[in-house]
Each structure stands twice: as C-alpha cells, then as structure tokens.
Amino acid sequence: MKRNQAERGDTLVEVTVAMAVLGLMLAASLAVINRGLMGVSNAVERTSVRASLSSQAELLRYVFDDPVANQETYGKILDLFKYAKPSKDLGQNGCKIGGGGFYLSVSNVVGAPPVEMHKLNQADTNNLANNVYGQPEAAGDNKGNSLGIWIEGDKHDGQQNGMPGYIDFYVRACWTPHAAQQPGSGRMESNVRVYYKK
Question: 165-175 and 186-196: which strand pairing?
Fold first, then answer.
C-alpha cells in the first residue's frame, strides 16, 4: 500500500496548473520579443529616413555650391521662391506640403544638369500619411504627390549693405511607421541654409 502511494503520478489539476504557468511564461516572453523586434524595426526605419534626408540636404548644398554646373536646377529653385514671402508657420505644417514643395534627384541623362529638381503639387496630410508606409523616399508619383520626403524653403532677400540673400530649406519626411497606430506619426526634419546671388 505504501509502495503504491509513492509511485502514483501527478493529478490532472497539477498538470493543468503547470501548463497554465508555462503558457503565461511563453506569452510574456513572446510579448517582450515582439516589442524588441518592433523597436529594432523602428530604429532601422528612422536611420534610413535620416540618410535620405541627409542625401537631399547634400544635393541642395551641391546645387548652391556649384551653380554653374547646376545652372538650370539653380534657376528653377530660385524661380520657385521668386515671389515667396517669409512664412510664419512654415516650420509648423507637419505633414502638409506647402506651395514650394519639391525634391531633388541625381540625373543620369547625358546633357541634363547633374541634379534635377521636381516640383510637387500640394497634398493634404491624410493623403501623404496614408500612402507612405515604412521607408519614405524622395520621389513623386504621376499626380505630383510626394512619397514622403520633400523640401520647402523660406527665402530672405539680400540686404542693401551687400549681404547676399539666403534661403532656409526644410527637408521633411512624413510617413506611417509599420508599428504605428496613427497615420503620419513618423516625422523627421533637417534644416539647410544656403546663400544665393541674384
């Protein structure tokens, strides 16, 4: 009788409790792993967007540092801001593209300027945010809407004492991250000031 009691197995209640504890531990582990993977994905997205913003900023600097080689693009950018007045809310527009929105691209066409400017039409915040998931890029669709990265500027004319004019450019990105709950919650901006001659 004593020998039979020592050899008896676990009861159904004990097995059920053990399985429940194991299930809770696995669920908690998966939640932690999932959160970590989303954090990594978000960091990769933001790093990629930062690189794209830097690329647009460098193209802007190149156009204004060498206006002879980029004469056509240089002229188009200045014409875009010919009658522009400084905007008080330019830096507060979030995902909305202003009237002077454009992006730059490197040209591979023989005879074309090394850097080309592409003007964008105005797009509302929802359209921009809802159509760009993951990594945005500096490109437009066939309707003239941005795909998440664009440039706006705030022009200041030269002073009478011989100081050159300058344009404060805002290189902006707006997109909906993969792990986001709200459209357009991914936003980033870089600023570039360039001087120009009339």
Answer: antiparallel
